[in-house]
Q: What sequence folds into this?
């Protein structure tokens, strides 16, 4: 039961963070808007992956879920690197 609600809350958390980034990226440079858009998509998909995990029971089952999570993390690391370029 804790696994179920933990993933629901975590999924909502990541999607909320994506929404906050969307709101905060108004009036930023074109480069930061591009990075922000990429981060929003990655965070949204990471949140969705937590909702999928509720049904599968593990972050590595099915293997495609593991690949989705890895791609999201790699994308977010890329966004962090690009954001900190200034």
A:
């Amino acid at each position: 039961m804790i696994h179920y609600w933990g993933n629901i809350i975590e999924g909502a958390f990541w999607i909320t963070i994506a929404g906050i980034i969307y709101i905060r990226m108004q009036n930023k440079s074109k480069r930061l808007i591009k990075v922000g858009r990429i981060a929003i998509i990655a965070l949204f998909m990471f949140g969705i992956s937590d909702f999928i995990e509720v049904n599968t029971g593990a972050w590595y089952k099915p293997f495609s879920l593991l690949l989705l999570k890895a791609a999201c993390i790699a994308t977010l690391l890329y966004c962090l690197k690009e954001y900190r370029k200034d």
Notes: The radius of gyration is 14 Å. The chain has a mean pLDDT of 94.
